[in-house]
Amino acid sequence: MPADLSPQRTAAEEAMARVIAETRHKFIDRLIVFGMELERDLPVIGTDAAGLAAIERAGRTAHTIAGLAKTVGFDELGQMARVLDTEIAHILLLPPDRIPVAALQDALDTFIELLVDCTES
Amino acid sequence: MTILAVDDEPLVLELVKSTLKLMGHADVTLAGSATEVLDIVAQGKLEISTFLLDIKMPGMDGIELCRALRQMPAHRNTPIIMLTAMTEKHFVDDSFLAGATDYVNKPIEATELGARMRVAQMIYNEQRRLNEASQVARELKVQVEARFQFDLEDAVTLEDLPRFIGVQAMENYLYRLGRLRQSQISAVGFQIAHVARLYGNCSGADFHFLLTDVGEAIFEGLRTTESIISYFGTGTFVAIIPRAATIDTDEVSARIAQVIDEFGIATSDEVPLDVQVVVTEPINGSIFATDPKAVANLAALRAREIGLKLPQGRLPADMARAG
């Protein structure tokens, strides 16, 4: 019988892996809610008060996802969330007439697609 | 001792709690907002060993919260670790400027969080040890001060000084000398210059230590004679010496000044004290046949009179000796 050459995990590592797996399940549930909220806000995004509030909400969602996605194994989603978080923070500092609404909607659309992929993983 | 973690995202809190628990930190308190943290702290029921603060939170953010905590005396030194998904430098800079001890990047990595927490706990333990030590020091200081509460005029007993006795003991000594031997002694007075000002600038303990140092300096100044010395209060010392002993008050005065310089007398707060002592010429004991203690009292009186007439500031060398 060939020797088992796979690296042995310590009890602490096993426990940590269980915590992460559990968090990952809960995170996926949250992603579904986040995806629905983003989809609802997508057409509202604009330069009026409601549009700016929608951008702010999207930024908060991206920030939350950026803080957790990589930890629970969604590296690509985490990376994109981080970029969006940073970009939206900059966008919110611009005068309303200079906000790239269409580009932001495109980016969020791609983000939602990736988010949905993650929930189906 | 609890670790207080705040984040507006419940999943992050859950992850932090589980991760810390796995690392042996069983006592973790969670809060969903800065306001909640401030409420918990205000209640004062928990002994918080470390704060973990998310930076970006609705309402008061983590940086403002950090600043608010640092303004509380109880948490001036409690480790504060910022949790941040922010990569921009100014968030990190602002955190440290607000008083943060460290920061952990999100997404959270168990090993990184563990390492930061270990450092934070070490800081906390060290801080606690120092606080306890300074508390003990404060209590000791109070005890010492209480022990050394006395008025400037009090003729306190200076212990552990060679050839020193109390005022009452000196009176008894003079009475017991007998008329013949009384005529064979002289009394020399010593006065600390500007003593009231020194007394006013010192704590009771500091002034007591000053008197002890001056007493030792006087003993050193008279080392070659068989003296008996006593402290009469108000910065006045009197030494009884054999009449036959010829003392050069200039030399005695210079030796006292030298010893005081070597001591470098200062307060417990390291504030140097300018201590100078004037010396009277010896007074012959035989002139007070009916009142043996009068010779000592006259020496004290003369020393005090000289002390009162002294100008402000450092004394010229020739004024340290006065007849």
Fold and architecture overview:
- The complex is a heterodimer of chains A (121) and B (323).
- Chain A is an all-alpha fold and 121 residues long.
- In chain A, helix 1 packs antiparallel against helix 2, helix 1 packs across helix 4 and helix 2 packs antiparallel against helix 3.
- The relative contact order of chain A is 0.14.
- Chain A is elongated.
- Chain A contains four helices and no strands.
- Chain B is of the alpha/beta class.
- Helix content of chain B is 47%, strand content 16%.
- In chain B, strands 2-1-3-4-5 form a five-stranded parallel sheet, with helices on both faces. In chain B, strands 6, 7, 8, 9 and 10 form a five-stranded antiparallel sheet that branches.
- In chain B, strand 4, helix 4 and strand 5 form a beta-alpha-beta unit.
- In chain B, helix 8 packs across helix 9.
- Chain B is rod-shaped, with a radius of gyration of 33 Å.
- The termini of chain B are far apart.
- The mean pLDDT of chain B is 86.
- The chains are: A mainly alpha (121), B alpha/beta (323).
- At the A-B interface, helix 1, helix 2 and helix 3 of A face helix 1 of B.
Structure in a nutshell:
The complex is a heterodimer of chains A (121) and B (323). Chain A has 121 residues and is mainly alpha-helical. Chain A has 4 helices and no strands.
